[in-house]
Amino acid sequence: MSEQKDFAAIGQRWSGWAKIIGVVISLVALLGFGTFFYDEVWYKKELTYTILPTYDLGDQAFSGLVVENRGQVSLTDVQIILSDLEAPIEVLNMPGAHEPDQVVSGGEGQREVRIVMPRLSKGSSLSIYMLTSAPVTLEEEKTIFVSSRETVGRNSAQQKTGPGWDNAW
What we know:
By secondary structure, the chain is of the alpha+beta class. The protein contains one helix and ten strands; from the N terminus they run H-E-E-E-E-E-E-E-E-E-E. It has one helix at residues 2-42; strands spanning 47-51, 55-56, 61-69, 75-82, 89-93, 102-106, 113-120, 125-132, 144-147, 154-155. Strand 2 (55-56) and strand 3 form a beta hairpin. The longest helix is centred in the first third of the chain and has 41 residues, at 2-42.
């Protein structure tokens, strides 16, 4: 009979520990999911750019890109760098209403340009058009770099794929 009491006492102690361990695991899982939900859904930071096609106009070429904030929050200290272009930029144009921007280096007459923006509000974009004397190739990781304090820009053509994602741009 005393052996049964010992087993019962041991079982009750382990039962108490199992409940505590279960609560701790549940809290860790909840915090992990909560952090994921906050970062990836509620407070999503997504900076994208779309490379526009190059149009050969004979003695000139027209090209450009569109930088967009597709996230849920404003992005700060946005930098757009186009470098190592095959031809100098003859005309640089950023039309339309958009956040304040500044060309800090390069630009017209140069083969590179660096544009900075103090912020890019959620849902807003900046279109950058260039006229050059010859066609230029804008390539990810070679001639284009887009970033902000919060995230690095990515090419919008490389959207997530799979069920529920439309990647036909």
